[in-house]
């Protein structure tokens, strides 16, 4: 058998892909042993696979960013509902001796708006501390009340952090 590229030379090997005969010089070009056409095709396939993998990675990253944004929106909607209920309750069932309650309602709205953000942070931190699932109903009632109160305090910086993170995420999504 003669070399496919050099017809005057004897073939010492064959292409691993197509089986063309290759002389010693052609056989030593690529590992594994391939002809120029198959080596180019293999290189193009590898580049295409790398490009597809990079596009999949970018899409996965973009999807994660969109999830971050949608999670913020869901938490904010929950916060608005909780805050609205709290202000409505405060307006209808609490008597005030002061004439100006607008400032109180704004404070109540903002603090109760931040409860879901603080609750999520505390739940995340709680995953590192094992809490027994057993306990009296008094334990769980007090536990939930304390967690709600601490959620107000933790929720304010958590909300600000999530807001900044969401804005930066939106910028990244727009760049992609």
Please tell me about this protein's structure.
With 176 residues, the protein is mostly helical. It has a domain at 59-175. Helix content is 71%, strand content 2%. It has five helices and two strands, in the order ββααααα. The chain has a two-stranded antiparallel sheet. Strand 1 (13-14) and strand 2 form a beta hairpin. Helix 2 runs antiparallel to helix 3 (102-113) and helix 4 (115-126) packs across helix 5 (137-175). The chain is elongated, with a radius of gyration of 33 Å. It starts with 12 loop residues before the first strand and ends with a helix.
Low-confidence runs: none
Helix-strand string = EEHHHHH
Residues in β-strands, percent: under 5%
Structural class: mainly alpha
């Amino acid at each position: 058998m003669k070399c496919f590229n050099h017809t005057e030379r004897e073939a010492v090997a064959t292409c691993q892909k197509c089986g063309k005969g290759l002389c010693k010089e052609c056989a030593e070009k690529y590992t594994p042993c391939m002809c120029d056409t198959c080596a180019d095709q293999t290189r193009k396939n590898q580049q295409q696979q790398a490009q597809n993998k990079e596009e999949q990675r970018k899409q996965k990253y973009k999807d994660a960013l969109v999830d971050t944004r949608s999670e913020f929106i869901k938490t904010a909607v929950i916060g608005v509902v909780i805050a609205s209920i709290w202000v409505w309750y405060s307006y209808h069932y609490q008597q005030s001796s002061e004439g100006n309650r607008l400032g109180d309602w704004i404070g109540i709205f903002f603090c109760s708006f931040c409860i879901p953000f603080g609750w999520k942070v505390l739940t995340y931190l709680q995953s590192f501390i094992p809490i027994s699932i057993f306990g009296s109903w008094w334990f769980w009632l007090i536990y939930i009340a304390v967690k709600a109160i601490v959620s107000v305090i933790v929720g304010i910086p958590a909300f600000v952090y999530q807001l900044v993170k969401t804005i930066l995420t939106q910028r990244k999504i727009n760049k992609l």
